Amino acid sequence: MSKSKGFGIVSVIIIMIITSIVSGITTGVIMLNNNDIEIANYSNDEDLKDFIEVYEVLLSKYYDDIDKKGMLEAAEDGMLNFLGDKYTTYLDDNEYQEIVDELASNYMGIGIEVSGREIKAFLDNSPAQKAGLLIGDLLTKINGISVEGLSSEQIGLLIRTDKTDYINVEVLRGTDLLSFKIKKEKLPNKVVSFKVINDTNIGYLYMKNFAENLDEQVSEALKKLESQNIKSLIIDLRGNAGGYLQAAEKTASLFLEEGKKIYSLKNSNNEVTYKDKTKEKRNYPIVVLIDNNTASAAEILAAALKESYGATLVGSKSFGKGKVQEVVKLDNGDSVKTTSAKWYTPNGTCIDGIGITPDYNESFMNFGAYGDTQLEKAISLLMA
Question: What is the per-residue burial (b if ≥16 Cβ within 10 Å, else e) of 192-216?
């Protein structure tokens, strides 16, 4: 682990749940914004005095030169590893920023959607479209870097992590190799898609992740679906790795009755239960699709809809991430992530390491009139 650290004045900036990489986003993310922490006075801590004394003895008595920075980094790693908790880790600034950018309401980009290297779609009035790129163009280079063999997620990362105002894009159009210099713009981070299932009155609502404005996007989608007289709804949380805890709470509140439980947080000192505080609610049947990559904030919503709304779950067992981490920003811009609590479903269950078992365990197979077997099952339940 290469890093430059200093545990000086720190502040808690987010609370999150985090695990492995899925589709370019860190799985199991739960975040809370802008919390403060007071640094305790450890001047009378005898154990810490012992540590400092050992450090001073080594610096003054060891026979050979000592890499002080490296030794302190090893001590910091030792503290993290000692806990035996895989979620208590060190995040460098890039790792932290990648998560934040993925979950922001807006992002700086050029507004293309790609499959492999092929441009499949544009955001409305996107910079790429205005610059002259066309659907079907094959990307060959981004900022002079070949994208041959890269996934669409890796290509997106090249664009997202660029710090300049312009992106240089090279594409193959037929046999012509064309170059474009495209100015990045602030674009909406669309994480919701929706439709009415053909030949039914069933709405379908897909959530990619729990971005900070997810509830606003879901609210708008519900208005449009309900204007088309849907009688029931499928919420697709498959592959959803989580996001902001507030987004899960606000999104659940669009459906639940006022006073219904959404989730609880429990640490070593207390337990706090979060309930719906809004007047808004829905009362039509809902089926929620989940799978092994439905994690954290997505599991919170799935559990709340099942236990406090009466929704039916279809698919495979969810990921099972029920621990909460605080991410504390260091003076050097990096962060330390440490487990601080567990979250519980409305019925008081901690799903960490267990997951949520669906009411109908349905394996995924990609076929049928509506696209896949899990979706087919959800539709059949709502049409019964």
Answer: bebeebeeeebbbbbbbbbbbbbbe
Regarding whether 207 and 61 lie in a shared domain, the answer is no
- Which run of H or E residues covers position 358? none
Which pTM value belongs to this model?
A: 0.77
Say if 205 falls within a structural domain. Answer: yes
Residue 77 class from Cβ within 10 Å (0-12 exposed, 13-18 middle, 19+ buried)?
A: middle
Q: How many CB atoms lie within 10 A of CB 66?
A: 12
Structural domain that includes position 152: 106-188
Identify the three-state secondary structure at position 360. strand
Q: Is residue 1 assigned to a domain?
A: no
CB-CB contact of 219 with 191 (8 Å): no
The Cα 246–Cα 242 span in angstroms is 11
| Residue range 277-302, pLDDT digits in tens | 999 999 999 999 999 999 999 999 99
Amino acid at 173: R
My answer on whether 254 and 162 are in the same domain is no
Together in a domain, 240 and 364: yes
Residue 226 lies in a domain: yes
Residues 339-374: tens digit of each pLDDT: 888 999 999 999 999 999 999 999 988 776 677 999
* Backbone phi and psi for residue 172, each to the nearest 5 degrees, phi listed first: -105, 120
Contact (CB, 8 A) for 111 and 186: no
